[in-house]
Structure to design on (1149 residues):
């Protein structure tokens, strides 16, 4: 259909070529780049926008926690015990009389940080690895991807549990361990992208113009591979956060007195019969955040048209 | 086909070997020996214990001896349960975990598969949105939150189902199986929807319709085979996820399965138990990865005839 | 004779987010049994949609039939329910499609797919159906029906698959066969066989055929009646001789004129000149087979010379190695042995870096205008890149040079800051040509530059290429599967088959008296 609409403009294109002799190109109408196209599409997706808004809200709240939190992190009010939500304590207090909202905000700092740092680790390793394998190709690619296949076949969840057991519950080890699992998928995606882009005729055209390898990577490969990387980064963050929560729940992740949403949920489970709000509010916060990230990721995928990125 | 199975199996052997080696040395390098906490232990007794578990020998001969035992299927004695071998412990725990995992995967495939196909048949209608929103919820709600919530609602408030145990009370298998299967049902639903959408837009579906075949035949005979390939390829990772998910489920529902043993062994620093369980679970996961790869390859006639030589 | 199918005022709209597209707008036509109706038009003209909509095969939404009637067998197809249409599809009206590679289900054996219409429409048992399927496979020219019956689609070439598709369409003995561009994806020699098969079947079984094509030349020997469509409307209809001999409508005339014919006006014998621009000797390029790992020779011991100012045609079917030869010459593919001498200097052994200065002097135009432009760069960036890289222009001069390139390739200067996705295929190919001539190269290799384009656009691009070769004194290696296109453009021609040159010579002498059997087959196959 678009072909039909285009074929009418074809005629105009070839006939009006002699009109206007302007030398400054800035006077001509600007085209719509694929990026601005994607932004326009994303703006029409209410779910993704809501997700984005929620994430910005949560991130800001967690960032500013020390200044905006209504109570101190360890501030106890033993008289209150575990009290249900009230005007003083919006989300209630835990069994030590600590304000739940405050603890959720502090926990969010850790959960989000784990999400971001571990994802960055995965991003850094995965993109570098995948890009090299895809671009160099041949034997190097075969060896590198074979290695990824082997690591992929390792039962990683069990290894992470093992690592945490052996080396103790160390936050940095956790970042490293989670990042080390998640980079594999990123490497595969980037390598696939680079490989298919490399065979595109516009890259061959760039070679035949005489562009150097780095110029081709910078000008032709990276801008085109960026879309999928952005999308999968957005989708990696929730799975990383889930992993952290899983480990913390088992008691193998974040260690008290530090807190994370997974740990709060685990405390909530212990007393959920008497004080269900201690389970429900941290659970709700985590679930909503993951929701928002996934909706944003899906929205980005549609907007950047990642699956159908043939041209 | 036989060649393919053989070559893929051969590839799995180094993976399993790597797993055993890494696990063995990780455990041995862990700070703190298993008998350190027990202050009452006399030095002589400790030495005798260490001799019994070969801890007094050089590391590499320990490793060689372990491999030798392993080759005979012997995972060694447990540190913390004197007189019981790791084999026995696995033999008591694993049947429970296996049953739980089987139900979970059946639930995932049935619910997920059907709702994914149903959603793909009428994309962007209520028939699509409702199951897909539920699937999104299933992905964003961690098992360790879903489990307690289900207990709270169906076990404590409604008192419909037992909240713990496995095979002790009628209906006590329902909640754990469903909790474990839910997240995977969500993934399967998204994968099968994606696969079906892709396949149903293929030219050969148009050919099938042009032949005047009933829609039921078009979907079930012509669509399903191709559409389910992503799901089959996902079975391996799903299996690994379900096994590690059982750690949480068994903890929440107080089920005496392998997962619970494993987590307890982790806290008790029962090194032979951790080592044995890791080797056992890892081998299992590698084997299932292999099976799901083989199944996916077998479903693709191009691969089947290529790899099978002259089938 | 009564009409087999009578379509009146068929109107189908697509209600998309960007508004209503009138895909089929008030279209009427009639098919009689024993007759072939050709529906001809360019892509997007609504020729396929009109046939799909009367059989209930358009995606709905967004497609919707707004008005019209389609009388077949005493009933109006447009008013029939899906269940009734299902009874008609595959049994009374059968279809074959454009791309045989994707039209067969890869997950089912050929036999399984063949017998389905018999089982569902004629309620035959599997054994009876299989019997019939085997004899039909024989009829459509498949040598080993027994083996074919149990084979998978991927084990066959495109031509064989199209034969299977035809057998599948005929198996329930339909009265009307709709063939939607059935030969567009095939090589010319295979195309000729399939066209002959369709004609034979039509006469033998006395059925009606609707033959949809973008190419008037293809339907010339086949059609009894012709309908010409443009942007959803019928612009001309009539019997075949009158359409071909005295077309009425301007658009039909344009389509007819676009069929490549005639030879290059100024063709001259350049083979004798002393200093060739390019001289290739005993070039061999091999590839590893993806599955078996064996190396096969895509380019097998090829030698040729290209004179300055000459356009040398390189003709062959898919898989003949013609593209690999083009890429090898530009060192986009690494060749194994032989020599490539460009302007007196050996470039075969040069490293990628040492090759760079030569890149300015030799350029390539690619086949697929959708893949050959970086989607994230504006036209300005695409055209400026080679100029900046080779230090040919800077600042205001750069702007001027880019705008002059736009003039050169016939694109409005106002488009210079747009992105590739905002252009049609023909316009994109103009941009790609602009990039190739930006550095004022001496040698241009054009790899099937028009085969992805509609005929009328194809004609414009060919004219543009001729004009630019003349204006900038280019030498060109023009790769194509179409001898007629090559004849319009080239002075000399080489014919390639399975990695080797089987014939070469002056275009006109090869055209009028081919020496090799394969060249003769190619010439005969050309529609």
């Amino acid at each position: 259909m678009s072909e039909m609409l285009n074929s009418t403009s074809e005629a105009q294109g070839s006939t009006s070529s002699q009109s206007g002799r302007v030398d400054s190109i800035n006077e001509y109408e600007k085209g719509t780049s694929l990026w601005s196209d994607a932004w326009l599409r994303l703006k029409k997706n209410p779910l993704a926008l809501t997700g984005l808004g929620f994430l910005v809200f949560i991130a800001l709240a967690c960032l500013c926690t020390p200044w905006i939190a209504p109570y101190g992190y360890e501030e106890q009010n033993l008289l209150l015990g575990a009290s249900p939500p009230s005007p003083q304590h919006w989300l209630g207090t835990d069994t030590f009389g600590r304000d739940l909202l405050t603890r959720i905000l502090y926990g969010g700092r850790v959960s989000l940080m784990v999400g971001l740092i571990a994802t960055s680790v995965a991003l850094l390793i995965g993109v570098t690895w995948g890009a090299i394998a895809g671009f160099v190709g041949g034997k190097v690619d075969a060896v590198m991807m074979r290695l990824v296949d082997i690591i992929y076949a390792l039962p990683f969840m069990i290894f992470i549990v093992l690592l945490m057991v052996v080396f103790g519950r160390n936050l940095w080890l956790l970042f490293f361990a989670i990042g080390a699992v998640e980079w594999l998928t990123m490497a595969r995606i980037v390598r696939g992208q680079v490989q298919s882009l490399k065979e595109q005729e516009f890259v061959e055209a760039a070679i035949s113009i005489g562009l150097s390898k780095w110029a081709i990577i910078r000008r032709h490969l990276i801008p085109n591979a960026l879309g999928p990387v952005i999308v999968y980064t957005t989708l990696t963050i929730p799975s990383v956060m889930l992993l952290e929560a899983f480990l913390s729940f088992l008691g193998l992740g974040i260690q008290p007195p530090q807190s994370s949403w997974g740990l709060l949920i685990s405390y909530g489970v212990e007393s959920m019969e008497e004080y269900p709000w201690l389970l429900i509010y941290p659970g709700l916060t985590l679930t909503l955040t993951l929701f928002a990230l996934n909706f944003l990721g899906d929205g980005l995928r549609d907007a950047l048209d990642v699956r159908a990125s043939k041209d | 086909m036989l060649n393919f199975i053989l070559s893929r199996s051969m590839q799995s052997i180094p993976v399993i070997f790597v797993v055993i080696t890494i696990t063995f040395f990780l455990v041995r390098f862990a700070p703190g020996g298993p008998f350190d906490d027990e202050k009452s232990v006399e030095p002589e007794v400790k030495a005798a214990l260490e001799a019994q578990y070969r801890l007094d020998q050089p590391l590499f001969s320990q490793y060689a001896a372990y491999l030798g035992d392993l080759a005979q299927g012997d995972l060694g004695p447990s540190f913390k349960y004197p007189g019981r071998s790791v084999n026995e412990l696995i033999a008591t725990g694993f049947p429970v975990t296996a049953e739980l995992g089987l139900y979970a995967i059946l639930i995932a495939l049935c619910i997920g598969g059907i709702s994914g196909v149903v959603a793909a048949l009428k994309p962007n209608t209520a028939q699509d949105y409702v199951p897909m929103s539920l699937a999104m919820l299933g992905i964003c709600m961690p098992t360790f939150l879903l489990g307690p919530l289900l207990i709270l609602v169906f076990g404590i408030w409604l008192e419909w189902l037992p909240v713990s145990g496995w095979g002790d009370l009628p209906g006590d298998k329902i909640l754990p199986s469903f909790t474990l299967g839910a997240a995977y049902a969500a993934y399967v639903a998204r994968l099968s929807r994606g696969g079906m959408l892709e396949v149903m837009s293929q030219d050969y579906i148009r050919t099938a319709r042009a032949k005047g075949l009933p829609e039921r035949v078009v979907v079930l005979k012509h669509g399903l085979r191709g559409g389910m390939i992503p799901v089959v390829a996902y079975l391996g990772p799903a299996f690994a996820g379900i096994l590690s998910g059982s750690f949480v489920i068994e903890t929440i529902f107080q089920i005496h399965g392998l997962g619970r043993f494993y987590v307890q062994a982790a806290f008790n620093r029962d090194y032979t138990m951790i080592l044995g369980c890791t080797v056992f679970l890892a081998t299992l996961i590698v084997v299932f990865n292999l099976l799901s790869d083989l199944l996916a390859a077998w479903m693709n006639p191009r691969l089947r005839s290529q790899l099978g030589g002259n089938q | 004779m009564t009409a087999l199918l009578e379509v009146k005022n068929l109107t189908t709209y697509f209600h998309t987010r960007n508004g209503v597209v009138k895909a089929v707008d008030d279209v009427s036509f009639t098919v009689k049994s024993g007759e072939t109706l050709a529906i001809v038009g360019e892509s997007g003209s609504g020729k396929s949609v009109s046939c799909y909509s009367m059989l209930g095969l358009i995606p709905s939404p967004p497609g919707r039939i707004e008005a019209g009637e389609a009388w077949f067998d005493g009933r109006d197809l447009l008013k029939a329910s899906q269940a009734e249409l299902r009874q008609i599809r595959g049994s009374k009206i059968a279809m074959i499609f454009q791309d045989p590679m994707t039209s067969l289900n890869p997950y089912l054996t050929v036999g399984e797919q063949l017998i389905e219409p018999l089982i569902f429409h004629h309620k035959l048992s599997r054994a009876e159906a299989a019997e019939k399927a085997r004899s039909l496979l024989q009829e459509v020219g498949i040598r080993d029906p027994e083996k074919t019956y149990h084979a998978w689609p991927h084990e066959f070439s495109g031509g064989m698959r199209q034969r299977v598709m035809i057998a599948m369409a005929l198996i329930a003995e339909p009265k009307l066969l709709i063939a939607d561009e059935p030969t567009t994806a095939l090589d010319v020699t295979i195309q000729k066989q399939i066209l002959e098969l369709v004609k034979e079947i039509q006469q033998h079984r006395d059925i009606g055929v609707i033959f949809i094509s973008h190419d008037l030349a293809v339907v010339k020997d086949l059609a009894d009646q012709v309908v010409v469509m443009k942007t959803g409307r019928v612009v001309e209809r009539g019997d075949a001789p009158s359409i071909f001999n005295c077309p009425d409508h301007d658009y039909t005339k344009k389509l007819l004129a676009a069929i490549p014919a005639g030879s290059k006006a100024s063709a001259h014998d350049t083979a004798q000149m002393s200093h060739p621009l390019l001289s290739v000797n005993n070039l061999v390029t091999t590839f590893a087979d993806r599955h078996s790992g064996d190396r096969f020779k895509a380019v097998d011991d090829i030698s040729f010379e290209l004179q300055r100012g000459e356009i040398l045609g390189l003709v062959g079917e898919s898989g003949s190695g013609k593209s690999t030869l083009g890429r090898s010459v530009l060192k986009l593919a690494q060749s194994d042995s032989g020599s490539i001498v460009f302007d007196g200097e050996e470039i075969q052994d040069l490293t990628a870096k040492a090759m760079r200065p030569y890149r300015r002097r030799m350029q390539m135009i690619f086949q697929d205008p959708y893949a050959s432009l970086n989607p994230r760069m504006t036209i300005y960036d695409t055209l400026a890149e080679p100029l900046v890289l080779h230090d040919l222009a800077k600042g205001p001069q750069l702007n001027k040079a880019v705008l002059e390139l736009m003039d050169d390739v016939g694109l409005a200067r106002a488009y210079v800051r747009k992105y590739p996705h905002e252009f049609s295929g023909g316009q994109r190919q103009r941009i790609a040509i602009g990039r190739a001539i930006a550095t004022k190269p001496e040698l241009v290799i054009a790899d099937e530059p028009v085969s992805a384009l509609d005929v009328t656009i194809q004609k414009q691009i060919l004219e543009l290429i001729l004009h630019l070769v003349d204006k900038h004194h280019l030498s060109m290696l023009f790769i194509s599967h179409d001898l007629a296109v090559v004849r319009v453009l080239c002075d000399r021609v080489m014919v390639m088959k399975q990695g080797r040159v089987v014939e070469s010579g002056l275009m006109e002498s090869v055209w009028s008296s081919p020496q090799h059997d394969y060249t003769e087959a190619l010439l005969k196959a050309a529609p």
Chain B touches chain C at residues 202-204, 206-214, 217, 221-222, 225-226, 299-302, 305-306 (CB under 8 Å). The domain at 86-309 of chain B is CATH 1.10.3720.10 (MetI-like fold). DSSP finds 13 helices and no strands in chain B. Chain B has one domain: 86-309.
